[in-house]
Every structure is written in C-alpha cells, then in structure tokens.
Automatic annotation (TrEMBL), chain A:
It holds the Pfam family BPD_transp_1. GO terms for molecular function: L-cystine transmembrane transporter activity. The keyword Transport applies. Keywords: Amino-acid transport, Cell membrane, Membrane, Transmembrane, Transmembrane helix, Transport. This is Amino acid ABC transporter. Residues 18-206 form the ABC transmembrane type-1 domain. It is a multi-pass membrane protein. GO terms for cellular component: ATP-binding cassette (ABC) transporter complex. The chain crosses the membrane at residues 20-42, 54-74, 86-106, 135-156, 176-198. It is found in: Cell inner membrane; Cell membrane. Belongs to the binding-protein-dependent transport system permease family. HisMQ subfamily.
TrEMBL record, chain B:
It is found in: Cell membrane. It is a peripheral membrane protein. This is ATP-binding protein. Signal peptide: none annotated. GO terms for molecular function: ABC-type amino acid transporter activity; ATP binding; ATP hydrolysis activity. Keywords: ATP-binding, Cell membrane, Membrane, Nucleotide-binding, Transport. Residues 23-266 form the ABC transporter domain. SUPFAM superfamilies: P-loop containing nucleoside triphosphate hydrolases.
C-alpha cells in the first residue's frame, strides 16, 4: 500500500536535502554563468591558440558524462593535490559542467547583437567596456534568456548526480529513506514532486524575467526571443 | 595673404588660407580580397561645408564614408581629420592607432546610419544621454538635461520617454541625430540617412539636416536624395566603381558635367522618380 505518511516522517531530512540541492544548483549555475561568460569573452580575442583551448574545453565537457567529470574532480582530484569536500566538489563540478553550455549560449547571444548597435557606440567614442556593459549585454539578455532558463532547468536535475559523491542533497536523503523503509515507490514519487516543483518555479521566474527584459520591445520588429539558440545537450 | 589674393580661385572653397581642412582624403584605396572597392580617392571637405556623395549602389560611397571614422579600414593613402591621421600612427607607417587614440578621434566625428541603430533597451532620452555619461564623463543629471535640449532641437521633446520600438522611422532617425549632435561633433557623417524611411517621413529628417547645415555643421552625406544634394550641398562627389568620376558644385555635377556615367545615373534617377 502507498504510505505517504513516510514522507511526513522523513520530512525534515528531505527538506534539508532539498535545501542542499537548491544551494548546489544555485551556486553551480552562478559559477557556470560567470565562467561561461568569461570563456565567451576570451574566445572573442584574436588569439588562435586561446580559441582552440577554449573550444577543446567546451567539447570535452559537453562530450563526457557529468558523472565522470564529477568523479574525476572528487576522486581523482586528490592525486594532483586537489582535495575537496563533497559539497564543494559538487558545486564546482556543476559550475564547470554548466560553463561549457553557458559559454555556447552566450556566444550565440553575442553574435546575435546587431552590428549597427555596436557601430553606433563605437562611432560615439565609447570604450569596449562601456559598449559591453551598456549595449551588448542588455541585447544579449533579450536573445538568451530562454536558453539560459532552459539550461538552469536542466541543471536542477543534474544535481541528483551529486548524491554519488555523498553530497547530502535531496537524492541522497531519498535513497537513505528508501534504504531504511523499503518504500521505493513513495520515495520516487516524492522525489519527482520535489524536482518538478523546483523546475516549475525556475521556469515561472524565467518567464517573468523574460517579460521584464523585453518590455521595451512591445510593438516591435522581429528582433525578439529566439529559443532556437538553446543549445541542446550533447 | 598676398599670395592667396594673387591666385585666381578656381572655385570659392579652394581658397583655404591657413586653415586645415576638416577632412582631407589623399590617394585612399581599399580592397575586399581581390575586389578593389576604393581606388585612389582624393577629397577635401572644408569647415562648414556640406559634401554629398552620390552614385550607383556598390560604387563605394558608404565604404568611403565609413573609412573616415575608421569603422572600415582603408589600405592605401591617408585620411586626415583636422590634420590628424585617421586610424594609423603618425610615426610608424601603417601601424594601427591604439583604441584610446581612435576613441579620442571619433569623439569629434558623429555618424548617422541608414538603420538608425538606436539602442532598443533605452528610451529616446537615454539613447541621447548615454555617450554624454560614458564618453564625456558628464554626471547623469547634467547629461539628461542636455539630452532633453537636443531632443527638443530635433522636435522630439515629447517623445523623450518612448522606447525606439514606439517611434516611427523618421522619429528614430531624428533621435539618432540628436544623439550625435549632443556630443558637439566637429564633423557629421550621414550614411544614407533617409533610405530606410517611408517616403512621407523623409522630409522631417532632411529638414533637421538642413537646419544643421544652416548652423554651419560640416557634413559628409551619402544620399540618394538628389533634391537635397542639389539644394543643400556645397560640393557633390559622384562615385562610380570606387573612383570619384565627377566632383564640383551641385550645378557643375548635375547640369554641366559631360561625364557619361553621371548623365546615365541621373537619367535613371529621373526615370524612376517620374510616373
């Protein structure tokens, strides 16, 4: 029989796990975006070797499973003197994993900025820093928000992998619950609910954000959102 | 001075005295791969002059204009603005200027584009105030009030808080002009400023340009508006396949030129505009 009271009994532990999941996800996304943006900018420099290195990095990260990357970081790290606590390794791993995808999203967004808007700024004597901050990034936001939100939703679900390196997040707590009660179905059901809730909140906030950054486009030309730029997972 | 008065001027603007021309283009050439888009261009624009560049599409007019503020790199010859070499270092031949030097040069050269190129996420007022803050270092309040005066000057004070998407093409172009004149440039470049406009909106933009010319602004205008060129320009340069095929006052180019390509171009223009 379905015994949902188990979810109540394990409630505190599950909520704690959920908290850790959100923390890892949030911090991972942040690191991924900052790193991804930096990679995208470095890729614009006219230095060929640098471009190759960044491209190779992106290809490797996108071409290998997150699980393996995480093992390499957490279990392989110590052999090169990198000893990380599980949660730290989890956050860093998510950040690195996300950075490759975010770099691609940002690259598409950067390329989609209308050249004329940048030329207008150049012709007024604006510096590259000013142009980036005041013209390019706001224009990129418009075209990349759907893809960014999409990637963030994907990353919520990648957090389950962290349980394997013993990060006490939701999946880990759920497995504990399942092991102690043999209530497999309840566990899986509860877990699905939690992740669905998280993804739902993320996409709702994403839609709001999108409306916010595109509000100036009301009655506008075909410049709007392009969810096609969303980079599918390899 | 006596030396000048003794020579017979060929045309009124060839008397320069000791002033440096606003723009001096000498032997400029540019190629895209094997395609030579500009060949051996010579052109002088004096202070307060309006020079129109006309000619068939693909003749190099826009490319030449974009070389003047180095949005386009020229390969041969030299361009000087108020005596300063554009894009390259004076001491080392063909060595590019640093970004900082290029910016200081561009501060005095405004450009108006065919596609307006307003920043869509900023209101009209913010578009005009932006470079005042970022480039001229004005504080926000001063920049805003200056920007408001500039919008007033192009007749758009009432649209200050509108986003570009809410403005007509003609209004957007006038905001773009306000954005440039706010910087108090010594020279303004216009790249087909009315070509993207509906016919009924062309007049308002040309009127603003006429006012600027009357105020003594030095202007180089790439245009297909022959009426504007004939009535407002001091000089007209007709470009064809990367060369200046005819140059002179509007009268000299439009009515007295015997150059067959000019004749042909004007005939096509007249045919297209009669119905």
């Amino acid at each position: 029989m379905l015994d949902l009271s188990l979810l109540v009994q394990y409630g505190p532990a599950l909520l704690r796990g959920f908290g850790v999941t959100i923390l890892c996800w949030g911090a991972g996304c942040l690191i991924g975006m900052v790193l991804g943006f930096a990679l995208m900018l470095l890729r614009q420099l006219p230095v060929k070797p640098l471009r190759w290195v960044i491209r190779a990095y992106i290809e490797v990260i996108r071409g290998t499973p997150f699980l393996i990357q995480l093992f390499l970081l957490y279990s392989g790290g110590p052999s090169i003197g990198l000893r990380l606590e599980a949660t730290t390794a989890g956050i860093l791993g998510l950040g690195i994993y996300g950075s490759a995808y975010f770099a691609e999203i940002f690259r598409a967004g950067y390329q989609a900025v209308p050249k004329g808007q940048v030329e207008a700024a150049l012709s007024l004597g604006m510096s590259y820093g000013s142009i980036l901050r005041r013209v390019i990034v706001p224009a990129m936001l418009v075209s990349t928000i759907p893809a960014i939100v999409n990637m963030m939703a994907i990353l919520t679900k990648e957090t389950v992998v962290l349980s394997i390196i013993t990060v006490p997040e939701l999946m880990y707590e759920m497995q504990t619950m399942a092991a102690e009660t043999f209530a497999t179905f309840e566990t899986i059901l509860g877990m699905a609910l939690f992740y669905w809730l998280l993804v739902e909140v993320v996409s709702r906030l994403g839609r709001r954000l999108e409306a916010r950054v595109t509000r100036f486009l009301t009655h506008a030309s075909p410049q709007g959102s392009s969810s096609e730029t969303a980079t599918a997972r390899a | 001075m006596t030396a000048v008065s003794q020579t017979v001027p060929l045309s009124r603007t060839s008397v320069q005295g000791d002033t440096v021309p606003m723009v001096s283009i000498r032997g400029v050439g540019k190629s895209f791969g094997t395609n030579e888009v500009l060949r051996d261009i010579d052109l002088t624009v004096n202070k307060s002059e309006v020079v129109c560049l006309i000619g068939p599409s693909g003749s190099g007019k826009s490319t030449l204009l974009r070389c003047i503020n180095f949005l386009e790199v020229y390969d041969r010859g030299e361009i000087r603005i108020e005596g300063r070499l554009v894009g390259y270092s004076e001491d080392t031949p063909r060595r590019r200027l640093s970004n900082r030097d290029l910016r200081s040069l561009r501060r005095n050269v405004g450009m108006v584009f065919q596609q307006f190129n307003l920043w869509p996420h900023m209101t009209a007022l913010e578009n005009v105030a932006e470079a005042l803050v970022q480039v001229r270092g004005m504080d926000k309040a001063a920049a805003t009030s200056h920007a408001r005066r500039m919008l007033d000057r192009v007749g758009l004070a009432a649209k200050a808080d509108s986003y570009p998407a809410r403005l007509s093409g003609g209004q957007q172009q006038r905001v773009a002009i306000a954005r440039v004149i706010a910087m108090e440039p010594h020279l303004m470049l216009f790249d087909e400023p009315t070509s993207a406009l509906d016919p009924e909106l062309v007049g308002e933009v040309l009127q603003v340009m006429r006012d600027l010319a009357a105020d003594g602004m030095t202007m180089v205008v790439v245009t297909h508006e022959m009426g504007f060129a004939a009535n407002v320009a001091d000089k007209v340069a007709f470009l064809d396949r990367g060369r200046i095929a005819a140059f002179g006052t509007p009268r000299e180019v439009f009515h007295e030129s015997t150059e067959p390509r000019v004749q042909q171009f004007l005939q096509t223009y007249h045919e297209r505009n009669s119905f």
